[in-house]
Amino acid sequence: MARLVFHVDVNSAYLSWEAARQVREGKADLREIPACIGGDPEKRTGVVLAKSIPAKRCGIRTGEPMGLALRKCPELVIAAPDFQLYESCSRAFMDICRDYAPVVEKFSIDECFLDMSGTGHCYPDPVQTAHEIKDTIRDTLGFTVNVGIGPNKLLAKMASDFEKPDKVHTLFREEIPDKLWPLLVEDLLSVGYSTAAKLKKAHIQTIGALAGRELTEIQRLAGVKLGQQLYCYANGLDDSPVLEQPQEAKGYGISTTLNENVTTWEHANRIFLSLADSVSSRMRADQAKAHCIAVNIRSNEFKNRSHQRKLETATDITGEIYQTAKELFAELWDGRTPLRLLGISLSDIVRDEEEQLTLFADPHRERARKLDRAVDAIRSKYGAQLITRGSTCREESRIGRKYKAQMERKRLEEEK
Question: How many Cα atoms are found within 13 Å in the side-chain-facing hemisphere of 274?
């Protein structure tokens, strides 16, 4: 049976979802004016997470500092991120996709794959069906998507990145020479900045030129594993299945590229606390713990270094992850070299049901774990901004300290 895969990708997701909400509230459509999502609208700090097409015409780019964006476009309208809204919109459009496809794989918050193989009796015209899915999402939810159609996940995803917004594109094998090969090599999925530079140095400017090179030559330029993948992708080859259930995470990671270089221990530790807080909450949501913690840094000269430590006892506790990250960082950084990226990686993952229980539980760890879970619950219900941590794990926000005190009083009452 011939494979048929759709890739559905929300157009400028964060901005589109906020725009759709504001339109329902009778406000201006952010998609039609210079607007962006990101940073703090009051302080005008942070980075651009998503932008409108009019903002793009002003030269604004995703990921650039908000201050720079405002210099390019002083009338830029800024909306703060709302991740609860994004999760709601994500579920809504994927639910519509599930009405059409027997198997839907969530690829990220704003894109998914549909395995339409074998649905020819129900949907004899794939292009018409893709238009129907696209239009249903637009008319029901108020935002637009692109739909890519292909014989595998790679070609479907590449197709969805063609002209936007609100479009349907195909990329079947017979269309590869005309639609895929003329594209620049950096447009190929999995080709990053450094890889593109290496390929171009070897006079490989387009995907077609990459497809025409020998596998061994590509592996010599990009490495054995990545070279194999690039060779296959350039020739439109991909046999990865559309997975109905996401695979369990084998590791968790988070990093941030900073607007200003980190030059002090205090600044770095504040960032590591924020990173530990975020990545540990994701692990707790998955009922997972990590045996190995690693710290990653990148200098202002783009030199990467990392350091890791194996723990005797797996952890999901923010304070423990933060403390270990600080210690690793102290062993890794010379205190002089400016840094532009900091990150934490957690690996050697165990699930709650796999963790070996001990007869002698540490009461301090249990209290820390209960506090973390209480903070998670409050953030889930009222938003991530309600509780923020201070510069060390003992410096929780006013609300966090109040909640911790309430828990301690409750514990004492129970002991009485």
Answer: 13
